[in-house]
Amino acid sequence: MTDHLYPPEDDEPDNFEPSLADYAAALEEMERTEAEPAPPQIAPIPLFQMLFERIATDEILQDFVHDVVGKLSDELGMKSAKGGKFYREKLAAGAKNAERYGRDQSLRAHLMNGMLPALRIARCLKAWGASRFRQYWTPEIERLFIAGFMMHDYGKIDEVQQTLKDLGFADNAPPREDQIAALERVFEQWCERLGLDDFLAPIGGLSLYVQDLISIAHNTQQLWGTLPDSNSAIDLPLVSASRSASYLNSSVYCLCLPISWLLFP
Known about the structure:
By secondary structure, the chain is mostly helical.
């Protein structure tokens, strides 16, 4: 008696309106027929390197970005500049306000935050005609300065500390003459890990300047004079250009903090 009240299942009344379920089914079908989206991919270079590329406007900094910045991120992006071992030592010694050493930056950030203002200062002094910079600050010296700055804290790296300890090096003491070859090997290995060998290729390569870079890097230590340049311990005399780089590196480094705010308002 009531069959005529309902249309057959395959018939639709003239005033039929799709339900929410019908819309959902249609949308699901459309999504199935569309091309599958490309899976997410890891960026080909670190974001830090990608951003740095935008401000590298000259050949030396472009080479630095290409050869060094990515490896610097890989090797030192997660290593603390002071907060690790330094923080633990200060805490164990009961130093005042030792907890502040736990709030730190990465070693990569520490190197970049020091090198870029120092490089800006050096270029300004060159442009202003400062005597030593006018005479000595050349593209060769600039590459040596940057490489030396990147290595000036290599002794903070845990792997380096352990390697030097295993080789018999004493803390805060200049290397003995019979240790120079081993020091060079460790230093060269880390230069290569940071891409400095490629960065120095345009001026002759790492092997030509490794002793000079050791001298530059050892000019900035936690305690002044603990790792001095010793000609008796160096097989070859430092070339005059690299001696100038060593001197200017120390000078610019000391100038960097007090006057960088004048150049970067």
